[in-house]
Structures are given as C-alpha cells and as structure tokens.
C-alpha cells in the first residue's frame, strides 16, 4: 500500500471509541478476501424480490406501516450520523489541501479514523438497504427497473471500490449520505401520515440528479489526471465503471423527473405522493 504524506485532519469535538479503534487495514483485507459475497447477496436479492412478487400475486398485501416508519427512521438517523461524521473531513480537505487531494488522495480512510469508520459503514449499509424492496413486494407496489438496478449496482460498486481505496469515493460517500439524510427523513414523515409539500420531493429528486452530474464530473477529471500521468489513487477500470453507473443513473432519473414533474400525465391520485429520484417507486409504498 502506498503511503502518502501525513495531512492535517479536522478537529472533531468528540471521537467515539468505535471510531478511534477503527483499523482500516483489517477491513480492507476482509473486503478483498470476501468481495465475491456481494454477488451472492445480489443473487439472493433477485430471487427474493421476483420470487416474492410471484408468491404475492394471489395474496392480500401487507400494510406494514409501523415497520416502515421504524425502517425509514433508522435509515434517516444512520444517514444523518454518517453525513455529520464525513462532511467535516470533506470540507477540511477541500479548504486545506485542495480539489486535487479530495479526488486523488484517499487520506479520508487511510489517515482519518472517523471518516474511515463511516466509509466502512457506508459500504456495509448497501446490504441492509436492499430491504427497501421487501416493503414494495409485500405491499404489492410496482417494482420498476430503476429501483433494483440502482440497489444492485451501488452495492457491487461500493464493495469493489473499497478494496481499491478509491480516492474519489470521498465525494460519492458524502453526497450519498447527505441526500439519504433528507430522503429517508421525508419517507419517514410520509409513513407517519404527515404531508410535506410536494416541492420537497422535487428538491430531493433535483439533488439526486445533481449528485449524478457531480459524480460524472469527478470521474472525468480523474481520468484526465491519469492521462496526464498525475498521481491519482483511482484505477482506469474503476473510472469506467463509475462513469457508466453515474451516467445510466442520470438518464433514468432524468426520465423519471420529466414524467413525474413535467409531462403532465400523472394521475390526480398520485399528486401528493413522494417522487424522489433514488427510489421513485416508493411514492406509492408509503401512501
């Protein structure tokens, strides 16, 4: 593993024991030895959601509102905590070490135990987040391609990138934590039968689209740096995967955004439903 010059870290007001005890080398070794597990989890996921849909065809749907409130609240809380613990490192890196460092040097995991721990938690969280789809299946709501495609690709890419300590992941993780903080909070409120303004859902969708644009831009810049023979801890293969993933998300989310907000073809009964971009099918899940 290449060692980088020691950089300054943000001054955290408090560091938890589980953060200070984090040893990134151990987690990386585990991920390198077990990275294929992600494919097994994806296989099980596909069998459960599509097999579950088949089993639910002639069965009454489950309501699960109380469980959904708890689920969304837990994910919102986790995302808020993750954002609070990773944003300081991200901003500190930008202001003290510059844009190049933020994209090309993985100090956020190799030298910062707080950010490193929550990077590890981010990667692992992509597995339980597959549970979002279980609510859709049991509540007999439409399961669209964007939903399960997004879940699968994010899980596999996140696990793979962790084994490489992809430096640009600093951007992707912070953006995702922040968007999820708002998104799952919105879902929790909807599940509690609160009715936030529909404009909030539109803002969340817009933030998700912005996330895709920034993700593509970061990858394109990293690719340019590699072509210029600059030191940048991202493999060309990873950049290709990431660009393909972010661009496909942008196309699918943009299509959804147009149909949900601009086409004028939405049915009146759906007008108050949440239509966030990351999991658009959940709009009917929490009615």
Automatic annotation (TrEMBL):
EC number of the protein: 2.3.1.199
Swiss-Prot/TrEMBL catalytic activity: a very-long-chain acyl-CoA + malonyl-CoA + H(+) = a very-long-chain 3-oxoacyl-CoA + CO2 + CoA
Broadest EC class assigned to this enzyme: transferase
A GO CC annotation given for this chain: endoplasmic reticulum membrane
Topology relative to the membrane: Multi-pass membrane protein
Primary localisation category: membrane
Keyword Oxidoreductase: no
InterPro entries: ELO_CS, ELO_fam
Keyword Membrane appears in the UniProt entry: yes
Location of the protein in the cell: Membrane
Top-rank taxon, per record: Eukaryota
TM helices/strands, residue ranges: 38-56, 68-88, 145-162, 168-189, 201-221, 241-258
Recorded GO MF terms: fatty acid elongase activity
Example GO BP: fatty acid elongation, saturated fatty acid
One Pfam family of this chain: ELO
Keywords (A to Z) from UniProt: Fatty acid biosynthesis, Fatty acid metabolism, Lipid biosynthesis, Lipid metabolism, Membrane, Transferase, Transmembrane, Transmembrane helix
Family stated for the protein in its record: Belongs to the ELO family.
Name of the protein in question: Elongation of very long chain fatty acids protein
Organism: Phaedon cochleariae (Mustard beetle)
């Amino acid at each position: 593993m290449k060692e980088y010059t020691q950089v300054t870290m943000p001054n955290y007001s408090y560091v938890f024991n589980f953060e200070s005890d984090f040893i990134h080398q151990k987690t990386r070794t585990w991920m390198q030895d077990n990275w294929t597990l992600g494919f097994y989890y994806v296989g099980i996921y596909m069998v459960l959601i599509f097999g579950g849909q088949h089993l639910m065809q002639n069965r009454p749907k489950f309501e699960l509102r109380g469980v959904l409130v708890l689920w969304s609240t837990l994910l919102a809380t986790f995302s808020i905590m993750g954002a609070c613990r990773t944003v300081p490192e991200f901003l500190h890196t930008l202001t003290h070490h510059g844009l190049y460092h933020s994209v090309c040097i993985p100090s956020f995991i190799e030298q910062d135990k707080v950010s490193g721990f929550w990077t590890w938690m981010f990667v692992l969280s992509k597995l339980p987040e597959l549970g979002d789809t279980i609510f859709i299946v049991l509540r007999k709501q439409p399961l669209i391609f964007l939903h399960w495609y997004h879940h699968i690709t994010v899980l596999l890419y996140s696990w793979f990138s962790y084994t490489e300590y992809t430096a640009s992941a600093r951007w992707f993780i912070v953006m995702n934590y922040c968007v999820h903080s708002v998104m799952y909070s919105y879902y929790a409120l909807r599940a509690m039968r609160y009715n936030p303004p529909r404009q909030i859902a539109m803002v969340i969708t817009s933030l998700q689209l912005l996330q895709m644009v920034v993700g593509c831009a970061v990858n394109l810049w990293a690719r340019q740096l590699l072509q210029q023979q600059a030191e940048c801890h991202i493999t060309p293969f990873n950049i290709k995967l990431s660009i393909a993933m972010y661009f496909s998300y942008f196309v699918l989310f943009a299509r959804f955004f147009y149909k949900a907000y601009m086409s004028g073809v939405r049915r009146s009964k759906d007008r108050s439903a949440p239509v966030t971009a990351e999991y658009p099918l959940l709009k009917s899940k929490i009615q």
